[in-house]
Amino acid sequence: MPVMRTIVESWPAEAEAVAPHEGPAFMEAELAPNRSLPNPAFTALMIAIAIISFSAGMLFITIGAWPVTPFFGLDAFLVWLAFRISYRDGRAREWVTVNARDIEVVRQHPTGHRRRYRLPTAWVQLRLIDPGEHHAQLALSAHGRALVLGSFLSPPERGEFAEALGAAIDTARRSLNPAQETPQDRAQEPGGAVPSGG
């Protein structure tokens, strides 16, 4: 049975803002969770569930089984609550910017609170653990610490983003000194990503 590996996030958030880099950005990406049911469809679904629950409850009342009626209302409430939690989690965001100096990650939690992380472009290593698996992880690491990205993405989306991010990191490094390879360029595979499959 394969062992499930996990990257523990240890890269600290910035305590104070840093002056923006004056050079070009080689990637400006926004990551967001997938939510399959838009608000109008959610409203229509809840109306349908309410009508069905009310009709079923009235039916049980007419046959004398009124103690069952409250459970129909409870079912409708639990469905509503589950969707509200899902929509709240859908407010999470990650913005990733790559330039020749550093990689900036701004993470927005569902509560709206934001944290900012900054890693050195020249020394960062991009790792994709168990690509294609449900528990796949994408992380940036440097100096023995790691930052996990896109934990809310699907496995295929993590793989696609890893390729795009790796290409942006390579381009940023070459722009700093086109004639010289960095130690990370020699250590990594094309695209800047180091896949770690099981």
Report the CATH topology name of the largest domain. PH-domain like
Report the CATH architecture of the largest domain. Answer: Roll
Strand content: 15-25%
Sheet/helix structural class: alpha+beta
The CATH class of the largest domain turns out to be Mainly Beta
Mean pLDDT, as a whole number?
82
Order of H and E elements: EHHEEEEEEHHE
In DSSP terms (H or I, runs of 4 or more residues), the helix count works out at 4
Give the number of DSSP strands. 8
How are the strands of the largest sheet arranged? 1-2-3-4
The poorly predicted ranges are 184-192
- Mind summarizing the main beta sheet? 4 strands, antiparallel
Characterize the overall form.
elongated
- What is the helix fraction of residues, given as a range? 25-40%
Give the N-terminus to C-terminus distance in angstroms. 10 Å
Rg, alpha carbons? 23 Å
Overall tally of domains? 2
What can you see in these coordinates?
The protein is α+β, with helices and mostly antiparallel strands. It folds into two domains: 25-33 and 92-196, PH-domain like (Roll); 39-89. Helices cover 36% and strands 24% of the residues. It contains four helices and eight strands; from the N terminus they run βααββββββααβ. Strands 1-2-3-4 form a four-stranded antiparallel beta sheet, with helices on one face. A four-stranded mixed beta sheet has the order 7-6-5-8, covered by helices on one side. Helix 1 runs antiparallel to helix 2. It is elongated. The termini are close together. Residues 184-192 have low confidence and may be disordered.
